[in-house]
Write a structure and sequence with these properties.
This is Cation diffusion facilitator CzcD-associated flavoprotein CzcO. InterPro entries: FAD-bind_Monooxygenase_sf (IPR051209), FAD/NAD-bd_sf (IPR036188). This protein has 13 helices and 21 strands. The protein is an alpha/beta fold. A 5-stranded parallel sheet has the order 3-2-1-7-19, covered by helices on one side. Strand 15 (310-313) and strand 16 (316-319) form a beta hairpin. Helix 5 crosses helix 6, helix 6 (218-240) packs across helix 7 and helix 11 (385-406) packs parallel to helix 13. The radius of gyration is 23 Å and the shape is globular.
Length: 476
Protein backbone atom coordinates (compact mmCIF):
# COMPACT_ATOMS: atom_id res chain seq x y z
CA UNK A 1 0.00 0.00 0.00
CA UNK A 2 1.23 3.49 -0.89
CA UNK A 3 -0.25 6.61 0.70
CA UNK A 4 0.04 10.16 -0.64
CA UNK A 5 -0.28 12.92 1.97
CA UNK A 6 -0.86 16.45 0.72
CA UNK A 7 0.45 19.11 3.09
CA UNK A 8 2.98 19.12 5.93
CA UNK A 9 1.14 21.11 8.59
CA UNK A 10 -0.36 19.72 11.79
CA UNK A 11 -2.57 17.27 9.85
CA UNK A 12 -0.04 15.97 7.36
CA UNK A 13 2.67 15.48 9.98
CA UNK A 14 0.26 13.69 12.31
CA UNK A 15 -0.74 11.30 9.51
CA UNK A 16 2.88 10.64 8.59
CA UNK A 17 3.89 10.07 12.20
CA UNK A 18 1.15 7.46 12.59
CA UNK A 19 2.03 5.69 9.33
CA UNK A 20 5.77 5.57 10.08
CA UNK A 21 5.77 2.84 12.77
CA UNK A 22 3.06 0.89 10.91
CA UNK A 23 5.48 0.26 8.06
CA UNK A 24 3.12 1.70 5.45
CA UNK A 25 4.82 3.45 2.54
CA UNK A 26 3.92 7.12 2.23
CA UNK A 27 5.02 10.33 0.57
CA UNK A 28 4.21 13.82 1.83
CA UNK A 29 3.82 16.47 -0.87
CA UNK A 30 4.44 19.99 0.42
CA UNK A 31 4.19 22.95 -1.94
CA UNK A 32 6.39 25.17 0.24
CA UNK A 33 9.97 24.76 1.34
CA UNK A 34 9.29 23.73 4.94
CA UNK A 35 6.84 22.14 7.33
CA UNK A 36 4.26 24.06 9.34
CA UNK A 37 1.38 24.89 7.01
CA UNK A 38 -0.46 27.96 8.26
CA UNK A 39 2.13 28.36 11.04
CA UNK A 40 4.83 28.69 8.43
CA UNK A 41 2.86 31.08 6.23
CA UNK A 42 1.52 33.43 8.91
CA UNK A 43 4.60 35.19 10.25
CA UNK A 44 3.12 38.64 10.82
CA UNK A 45 4.12 40.50 14.01
CA UNK A 46 2.32 39.04 17.00
CA UNK A 47 1.05 35.95 15.17
CA UNK A 48 -0.03 33.38 17.71
CA UNK A 49 -2.67 30.92 18.85
CA UNK A 50 -5.74 31.54 20.98
CA UNK A 51 -5.73 27.95 22.32
CA UNK A 52 -3.38 27.27 25.27
CA UNK A 53 -0.12 25.68 24.16
CA UNK A 54 -0.37 22.51 26.24
CA UNK A 55 -3.62 21.65 24.45
CA UNK A 56 -2.56 22.97 21.03
CA UNK A 57 -0.14 20.09 20.58
CA UNK A 58 -0.26 16.37 19.83
CA UNK A 59 -1.43 14.07 22.60
CA UNK A 60 1.54 11.79 21.86
CA UNK A 61 4.03 14.69 22.03
CA UNK A 62 2.76 16.79 24.92
CA UNK A 63 5.97 18.83 25.16
CA UNK A 64 6.83 20.43 28.49
CA UNK A 65 8.98 23.23 27.08
CA UNK A 66 6.30 25.74 26.03
CA UNK A 67 7.36 29.19 27.25
CA UNK A 68 3.90 30.81 27.12
CA UNK A 69 0.34 29.87 27.95
CA UNK A 70 -0.67 31.07 24.48
CA UNK A 71 2.12 30.20 22.03
CA UNK A 72 3.30 32.54 19.32
CA UNK A 73 4.05 31.54 15.75
CA UNK A 74 7.82 30.95 16.04
CA UNK A 75 7.35 28.56 18.95
CA UNK A 76 4.55 26.60 17.25
CA UNK A 77 6.62 26.30 14.08
CA UNK A 78 9.62 25.14 16.10
CA UNK A 79 7.41 22.50 17.76
CA UNK A 80 6.30 21.15 14.37
CA UNK A 81 9.90 21.15 13.13
CA UNK A 82 10.90 19.20 16.21
CA UNK A 83 8.12 16.63 15.65
CA UNK A 84 9.12 16.15 12.00
CA UNK A 85 12.68 15.38 13.08
CA UNK A 86 11.94 13.36 16.24
CA UNK A 87 9.55 10.98 14.49
CA UNK A 88 11.69 10.60 11.39
CA UNK A 89 9.17 11.78 8.80
CA UNK A 90 11.08 14.68 7.25
CA UNK A 91 12.96 12.36 4.89
CA UNK A 92 9.67 11.40 3.23
CA UNK A 93 8.51 14.96 2.59
CA UNK A 94 8.93 16.35 -0.92
CA UNK A 95 9.24 20.08 -0.43
CA UNK A 96 8.48 22.63 -3.14
CA UNK A 97 6.23 20.07 -4.81
CA UNK A 98 2.64 21.17 -5.38
CA UNK A 99 -0.09 18.67 -6.17
CA UNK A 100 -2.06 19.86 -9.18
CA UNK A 101 -4.57 17.03 -9.67
CA UNK A 102 -5.55 13.58 -8.45
CA UNK A 103 -7.64 11.13 -10.49
CA UNK A 104 -9.05 7.78 -9.37
CA UNK A 105 -8.60 5.21 -12.15
CA UNK A 106 -10.83 2.51 -10.68
CA UNK A 107 -8.16 1.00 -8.49
CA UNK A 108 -5.55 3.63 -7.68
CA UNK A 109 -5.10 7.38 -7.42
CA UNK A 110 -3.01 9.05 -10.11
CA UNK A 111 -1.43 12.04 -8.35
CA UNK A 112 -0.02 14.75 -10.61
CA UNK A 113 2.57 17.34 -9.63
CA UNK A 114 4.88 19.51 -11.71
CA UNK A 115 7.31 16.59 -11.62
CA UNK A 116 4.89 14.15 -13.26
CA UNK A 117 2.23 11.61 -12.26
CA UNK A 118 2.59 8.85 -9.68
CA UNK A 119 0.28 6.06 -8.53
CA UNK A 120 -0.94 5.70 -4.94
CA UNK A 121 -3.52 3.50 -3.26
CA UNK A 122 -4.69 6.16 -0.82
CA UNK A 123 -4.70 9.96 -0.80
CA UNK A 124 -4.92 11.91 2.47
CA UNK A 125 -5.47 15.63 1.95
CA UNK A 126 -4.32 17.83 4.81
CA UNK A 127 -4.34 21.20 3.11
CA UNK A 128 -6.59 22.61 5.83
CA UNK A 129 -9.02 25.53 5.77
CA UNK A 130 -6.74 28.50 6.43
CA UNK A 131 -4.19 28.38 3.64
CA UNK A 132 -5.41 30.55 0.73
CA UNK A 133 -5.55 34.30 1.52
CA UNK A 134 -8.77 36.10 0.64
CA UNK A 135 -8.57 39.58 -0.85
CA UNK A 136 -11.60 41.89 -0.79
CA UNK A 137 -13.33 42.72 -4.04
CA UNK A 138 -12.64 46.47 -3.89
CA UNK A 139 -12.27 48.41 -7.13
CA UNK A 140 -8.84 49.90 -7.82
CA UNK A 141 -6.78 47.52 -5.70
CA UNK A 142 -4.26 46.94 -8.46
CA UNK A 143 -3.79 50.68 -9.02
CA UNK A 144 -2.47 51.49 -5.55
CA UNK A 145 0.92 53.24 -5.89
CA UNK A 146 2.23 52.24 -2.46
CA UNK A 147 3.05 48.87 -0.91
CA UNK A 148 0.26 46.42 -0.18
CA UNK A 149 0.21 42.85 1.09
CA UNK A 150 -1.96 40.33 2.92
CA UNK A 151 -1.28 39.63 6.59
CA UNK A 152 -0.77 35.94 5.75
CA UNK A 153 1.99 36.93 3.30
CA UNK A 154 3.66 39.58 5.44
CA UNK A 155 6.24 41.74 3.69
CA UNK A 156 9.08 41.71 6.20
CA UNK A 157 11.27 43.78 3.87
CA UNK A 158 8.90 46.75 4.13
CA UNK A 159 9.79 49.01 7.05
CA UNK A 160 6.62 50.40 8.64
CA UNK A 161 8.34 53.05 10.74
CA UNK A 162 6.88 56.47 10.01
CA UNK A 163 4.39 55.10 7.48
CA UNK A 164 0.76 55.98 6.92
CA UNK A 165 -0.85 52.57 7.07
CA UNK A 166 -4.36 51.40 6.20
CA UNK A 167 -5.48 48.05 7.66
CA UNK A 168 -8.53 46.56 5.99
CA UNK A 169 -10.09 44.00 8.32
CA UNK A 170 -10.33 43.62 12.09
CA UNK A 171 -10.40 39.90 12.89
CA UNK A 172 -8.00 37.79 14.90
CA UNK A 173 -4.96 38.48 12.70
CA UNK A 174 -5.52 42.24 12.79
CA UNK A 175 -6.04 42.12 16.55
CA UNK A 176 -2.64 40.50 16.91
CA UNK A 177 -0.51 42.64 14.61
CA UNK A 178 -2.13 46.08 15.11
CA UNK A 179 -0.72 46.47 18.66
CA UNK A 180 2.73 45.53 17.33
CA UNK A 181 2.81 48.02 14.46
CA UNK A 182 0.91 50.88 16.10
CA UNK A 183 3.94 52.30 17.96
CA UNK A 184 5.97 52.28 14.71
CA UNK A 185 3.67 54.00 12.26
CA UNK A 186 2.88 57.66 11.84
CA UNK A 187 -0.80 57.05 11.13
CA UNK A 188 -2.97 53.94 11.27
CA UNK A 189 -6.48 53.75 9.83
CA UNK A 190 -8.33 50.53 10.69
CA UNK A 191 -11.18 49.96 8.24
CA UNK A 192 -13.91 48.00 9.97
CA UNK A 193 -16.98 46.59 8.25
CA UNK A 194 -18.45 44.91 11.35
CA UNK A 195 -16.98 44.78 14.88
CA UNK A 196 -16.07 41.52 16.61
CA UNK A 197 -16.69 40.32 20.11
CA UNK A 198 -13.39 40.43 21.99
CA UNK A 199 -12.58 38.76 25.31
CA UNK A 200 -9.37 39.13 27.35
CA UNK A 201 -6.43 36.81 26.77
CA UNK A 202 -5.05 35.66 30.13
CA UNK A 203 -1.54 35.05 28.80
CA UNK A 204 1.38 34.18 31.02
CA UNK A 205 4.96 33.00 30.69
CA UNK A 206 6.21 29.64 31.92
CA UNK A 207 9.52 30.16 33.65
CA UNK A 208 12.32 27.60 34.01
CA UNK A 209 10.92 26.22 37.28
CA UNK A 210 7.46 25.66 35.84
CA UNK A 211 8.85 24.02 32.70
CA UNK A 212 11.09 21.78 34.78
CA UNK A 213 8.15 20.73 36.96
CA UNK A 214 6.06 19.86 33.91
CA UNK A 215 8.97 17.91 32.48
CA UNK A 216 9.77 15.95 35.65
CA UNK A 217 6.12 15.31 36.52
CA UNK A 218 4.33 14.19 33.34
CA UNK A 219 1.19 13.59 35.36
CA UNK A 220 1.08 17.30 36.21
CA UNK A 221 1.23 18.21 32.54
CA UNK A 222 -1.49 15.67 31.67
CA UNK A 223 -3.71 17.07 34.41
CA UNK A 224 -3.17 20.65 33.21
CA UNK A 225 -3.94 19.68 29.62
CA UNK A 226 -7.08 17.82 30.73
CA UNK A 227 -8.24 20.81 32.77
CA UNK A 228 -7.91 23.14 29.75
CA UNK A 229 -9.82 20.66 27.59
CA UNK A 230 -12.65 20.18 30.11
CA UNK A 231 -12.98 23.92 30.65
CA UNK A 232 -13.34 24.50 26.92
CA UNK A 233 -15.95 21.76 26.59
CA UNK A 234 -17.84 22.64 29.74
CA UNK A 235 -17.84 26.45 29.51
CA UNK A 236 -17.02 27.66 26.00
CA UNK A 237 -18.98 25.10 23.98
CA UNK A 238 -22.30 25.81 25.80
CA UNK A 239 -21.87 29.50 24.93
CA UNK A 240 -21.81 28.61 21.22
CA UNK A 241 -24.71 26.19 21.62
CA UNK A 242 -26.93 28.90 23.17
CA UNK A 243 -26.50 27.25 26.55
CA UNK A 244 -25.98 28.39 30.10
CA UNK A 245 -22.75 30.34 29.44
CA UNK A 246 -23.92 32.32 26.39
CA UNK A 247 -24.86 35.38 28.41
CA UNK A 248 -21.71 34.98 30.49
CA UNK A 249 -19.59 35.20 27.32
CA UNK A 250 -21.42 38.34 26.19
CA UNK A 251 -21.03 40.01 29.60
CA UNK A 252 -17.35 39.18 29.70
CA UNK A 253 -16.81 40.72 26.26
CA UNK A 254 -18.78 43.86 27.11
CA UNK A 255 -16.91 44.21 30.39
CA UNK A 256 -13.62 43.91 28.55
CA UNK A 257 -14.69 46.59 26.06
CA UNK A 258 -15.81 49.04 28.74
CA UNK A 259 -12.68 48.45 30.82
CA UNK A 260 -10.32 49.20 27.94
CA UNK A 261 -12.16 51.80 25.83
CA UNK A 262 -13.22 54.95 27.67
CA UNK A 263 -14.51 56.91 24.67
CA UNK A 264 -18.25 56.19 24.24
CA UNK A 265 -18.11 56.96 20.53
CA UNK A 266 -15.37 54.42 19.92
CA UNK A 267 -17.11 51.91 22.17
CA UNK A 268 -20.23 52.22 20.06
CA UNK A 269 -18.20 51.51 16.91
CA UNK A 270 -16.70 48.43 18.55
CA UNK A 271 -19.93 46.95 19.91
CA UNK A 272 -21.27 44.11 17.71
CA UNK A 273 -24.94 43.85 16.83
CA UNK A 274 -25.01 40.05 16.70
CA UNK A 275 -24.75 37.33 19.38
CA UNK A 276 -21.35 36.50 20.80
CA UNK A 277 -19.93 33.49 19.00
CA UNK A 278 -21.89 34.08 15.80
CA UNK A 279 -18.53 35.00 14.27
CA UNK A 280 -15.12 33.91 15.54
CA UNK A 281 -14.57 35.47 18.97
CA UNK A 282 -11.30 37.42 19.17
CA UNK A 283 -9.20 36.61 22.24
CA UNK A 284 -6.82 39.49 22.88
CA UNK A 285 -5.93 41.96 25.63
CA UNK A 286 -3.88 44.47 23.66
CA UNK A 287 -6.14 45.13 20.65
CA UNK A 288 -8.52 47.63 22.25
CA UNK A 289 -5.77 49.72 23.90
CA UNK A 290 -4.01 50.04 20.52
CA UNK A 291 -7.21 51.39 18.96
CA UNK A 292 -7.37 54.19 21.53
CA UNK A 293 -3.95 55.62 20.69
CA UNK A 294 -3.78 59.13 19.14
CA UNK A 295 -2.33 57.91 15.83
CA UNK A 296 -5.11 55.32 15.28
CA UNK A 297 -8.63 55.75 13.94
CA UNK A 298 -11.30 53.10 13.47
CA UNK A 299 -13.03 53.88 10.18
CA UNK A 300 -16.53 52.52 9.66
CA UNK A 301 -17.38 54.50 6.50
CA UNK A 302 -17.89 52.06 3.61
CA UNK A 303 -14.93 51.77 1.26
CA UNK A 304 -15.75 52.99 -2.24
CA UNK A 305 -12.47 52.12 -3.93
CA UNK A 306 -8.72 51.97 -3.51
CA UNK A 307 -7.04 54.93 -5.17
CA UNK A 308 -3.40 55.41 -6.11
CA UNK A 309 -2.75 57.43 -2.95
CA UNK A 310 -4.91 55.60 -0.43
CA UNK A 311 -8.37 54.32 0.43
CA UNK A 312 -11.44 56.26 -0.62
CA UNK A 313 -14.62 56.04 1.44
CA UNK A 314 -17.98 57.75 1.06
CA UNK A 315 -16.49 60.60 3.15
CA UNK A 316 -13.42 61.10 0.96
CA UNK A 317 -9.85 59.89 0.46
CA UNK A 318 -7.74 58.66 3.36
CA UNK A 319 -4.16 58.81 2.24
CA UNK A 320 -1.89 55.84 2.85
CA UNK A 321 1.44 54.59 1.57
CA UNK A 322 0.89 51.05 2.88
CA UNK A 323 -2.21 48.84 2.82
CA UNK A 324 -2.39 45.62 4.82
CA UNK A 325 -5.26 43.27 4.02
CA UNK A 326 -6.31 41.40 7.16
CA UNK A 327 -9.22 39.84 5.34
CA UNK A 328 -8.82 36.18 6.22
CA UNK A 329 -8.85 33.16 3.96
CA UNK A 330 -10.91 31.50 1.26
CA UNK A 331 -12.15 29.04 3.84
CA UNK A 332 -15.15 27.53 2.05
CA UNK A 333 -13.16 26.55 -1.07
CA UNK A 334 -11.92 23.28 0.35
CA UNK A 335 -9.02 21.53 -1.45
CA UNK A 336 -8.87 24.09 -4.25
CA UNK A 337 -7.08 24.59 -6.58
CA UNK A 338 -6.30 20.82 -6.68
CA UNK A 339 -8.58 19.05 -9.16
CA UNK A 340 -9.91 15.77 -7.74
CA UNK A 341 -11.71 13.33 -10.04
CA UNK A 342 -13.49 10.32 -8.58
CA UNK A 343 -15.52 7.44 -9.98
CA UNK A 344 -17.47 8.00 -13.18
CA UNK A 345 -15.45 11.12 -13.98
CA UNK A 346 -17.05 13.11 -11.15
CA UNK A 347 -15.05 16.11 -10.02
CA UNK A 348 -15.05 17.25 -6.44
CA UNK A 349 -15.65 20.83 -7.58
CA UNK A 350 -18.92 19.81 -9.26
CA UNK A 351 -20.02 17.63 -6.36
CA UNK A 352 -19.38 20.49 -3.95
CA UNK A 353 -20.85 23.28 -6.07
CA UNK A 354 -23.48 23.94 -3.37
CA UNK A 355 -20.99 23.70 -0.52
CA UNK A 356 -18.39 21.23 0.69
CA UNK A 357 -19.48 18.23 2.75
CA UNK A 358 -17.94 14.95 3.85
CA UNK A 359 -18.89 12.08 6.13
CA UNK A 360 -17.32 12.88 9.51
CA UNK A 361 -15.61 15.66 7.56
CA UNK A 362 -13.30 12.90 6.28
CA UNK A 363 -14.80 10.86 3.42
CA UNK A 364 -16.73 11.79 0.27
CA UNK A 365 -19.06 9.48 -1.71
CA UNK A 366 -17.72 8.54 -5.18
CA UNK A 367 -14.14 9.33 -4.11
CA UNK A 368 -12.77 6.00 -2.85
CA UNK A 369 -9.67 5.89 -0.67
CA UNK A 370 -9.64 9.68 -0.34
CA UNK A 371 -9.54 11.01 3.21
CA UNK A 372 -9.62 14.62 4.40
CA UNK A 373 -8.02 16.05 7.52
CA UNK A 374 -9.52 19.30 8.85
CA UNK A 375 -12.21 18.89 6.21
CA UNK A 376 -15.76 20.29 6.04
CA UNK A 377 -17.55 20.86 9.35
CA UNK A 378 -14.58 20.00 11.55
CA UNK A 379 -13.39 23.47 12.55
CA UNK A 380 -13.90 24.49 16.17
CA UNK A 381 -14.84 27.75 17.81
CA UNK A 382 -14.00 26.65 21.33
CA UNK A 383 -11.30 23.98 21.46
CA UNK A 384 -8.13 22.66 19.80
CA UNK A 385 -8.25 21.61 16.15
CA UNK A 386 -5.29 19.33 16.89
CA UNK A 387 -7.69 17.17 18.91
CA UNK A 388 -9.99 16.89 15.88
CA UNK A 389 -7.09 16.05 13.56
CA UNK A 390 -5.99 13.21 15.82
CA UNK A 391 -9.53 11.81 15.79
CA UNK A 392 -9.51 11.95 11.98
CA UNK A 393 -6.11 10.28 11.68
CA UNK A 394 -7.27 7.49 14.00
CA UNK A 395 -10.28 6.95 11.73
CA UNK A 396 -8.08 6.78 8.62
CA UNK A 397 -5.77 4.29 10.32
CA UNK A 398 -8.80 2.13 11.15
CA UNK A 399 -9.82 2.13 7.46
CA UNK A 400 -6.42 1.11 6.08
CA UNK A 401 -6.57 -2.60 7.08
CA UNK A 402 -9.87 -2.97 5.21
CA UNK A 403 -8.36 -1.30 2.16
CA UNK A 404 -5.34 -3.60 2.27
CA UNK A 405 -7.54 -6.70 2.48
CA UNK A 406 -10.50 -5.83 0.27
CA UNK A 407 -9.35 -3.08 -2.09
CA UNK A 408 -10.84 0.38 -2.71
CA UNK A 409 -13.73 1.47 -0.52
CA UNK A 410 -15.84 4.59 -0.28
CA UNK A 411 -18.42 6.00 2.10
CA UNK A 412 -21.98 4.90 1.31
CA UNK A 413 -24.30 7.63 -0.06
CA UNK A 414 -26.93 6.66 2.54
CA UNK A 415 -24.36 7.16 5.32
CA UNK A 416 -23.57 10.58 3.85
CA UNK A 417 -27.28 11.44 3.68
CA UNK A 418 -27.78 10.47 7.33
CA UNK A 419 -24.73 12.51 8.30
CA UNK A 420 -26.09 15.51 6.40
CA UNK A 421 -29.39 15.30 8.31
CA UNK A 422 -27.61 15.04 11.66
CA UNK A 423 -25.47 18.07 10.90
CA UNK A 424 -28.47 20.14 9.81
CA UNK A 425 -30.32 19.33 13.02
CA UNK A 426 -27.28 20.12 15.15
CA UNK A 427 -26.67 23.43 13.35
CA UNK A 428 -30.08 24.67 14.49
CA UNK A 429 -28.80 24.71 18.07
CA UNK A 430 -25.69 26.76 17.31
CA UNK A 431 -25.33 30.52 17.61
CA UNK A 432 -23.73 30.87 14.17
CA UNK A 433 -26.74 29.36 12.39
CA UNK A 434 -28.44 32.71 11.85
CA UNK A 435 -27.82 36.39 12.34
CA UNK A 436 -24.40 37.07 10.86
CA UNK A 437 -22.11 36.30 7.96
CA UNK A 438 -18.72 34.82 8.76
CA UNK A 439 -15.92 32.73 7.30
CA UNK A 440 -17.78 29.71 8.63
CA UNK A 441 -20.37 30.08 5.86
CA UNK A 442 -20.70 30.10 2.11
CA UNK A 443 -22.07 33.21 0.40
CA UNK A 444 -25.47 31.48 0.44
CA UNK A 445 -25.36 31.11 4.22
CA UNK A 446 -24.57 27.40 4.52
CA UNK A 447 -22.19 26.53 7.37
CA UNK A 448 -19.50 24.34 5.80
CA UNK A 449 -16.65 24.85 8.24
CA UNK A 450 -17.71 24.37 11.85
CA UNK A 451 -18.44 21.27 13.91
CA UNK A 452 -21.77 21.82 15.73
CA UNK A 453 -21.24 19.47 18.66
CA UNK A 454 -18.94 18.76 21.57
CA UNK A 455 -15.58 17.26 20.65
CA UNK A 456 -16.33 14.28 22.91
CA UNK A 457 -19.10 13.34 20.48
CA UNK A 458 -16.79 13.68 17.49
CA UNK A 459 -14.21 11.46 19.17
CA UNK A 460 -16.86 8.79 19.77
CA UNK A 461 -18.20 8.93 16.19
CA UNK A 462 -14.78 8.77 14.54
CA UNK A 463 -13.84 5.87 16.83
CA UNK A 464 -16.71 3.65 15.63
CA UNK A 465 -15.85 0.70 13.30
CA UNK A 466 -15.72 2.22 9.80
CA UNK A 467 -17.01 -0.64 7.68
CA UNK A 468 -20.80 -0.22 8.13
CA UNK A 469 -20.57 3.29 6.70
CA UNK A 470 -18.32 2.25 3.77
CA UNK A 471 -18.65 -0.06 0.79
CA UNK A 472 -16.36 -1.65 -1.72
CA UNK A 473 -16.21 0.30 -4.96
CA UNK A 474 -17.02 -2.89 -6.86
CA UNK A 475 -20.47 -2.86 -5.19
CA UNK A 476 -21.21 0.71 -6.27
Amino acid sequence: MRVAIIGAGFGGLCMAIRLEPAGIAYTVFEKAGGVGGTWRDNSYPGAGCDIPSHLYSYSFEKYASWTRRYPEQPEILAYLEMCADKYGVRRKIRFNTEVRAARFDGRHWQVTTDEGTERFDVVVSSVGQLNRPAYPEIPGREGFSGVSFHSARWNHDHDLRGRRVAVIGNGSSAAQFIPRIQPLVERLDVFQRTPNWVIPKPDATFGPVTRLALHLAPGLQRAYREWIYRYAEGTLYPALAKGWSANLLRKRALGHLHAQVADPGLRAKLTPGFPAGCKRVVIDSSFYPALTRPNVEVVTDPIVRIAAKGVETAEGLREADTIIFATGFRTTEFLQPIEFTGTGGRTLADQWKDGAEAYLGISVPHFPNLFLLYGPNTNLGHNSIVFMIECQVRHVMACLPYLAEMGPMEVRPEAMAAWRRQLAAAMERMVWGNGCQSWYKTAEGRVTNNWPGPTTLYRRLTGLPPLPAYRLTSSA
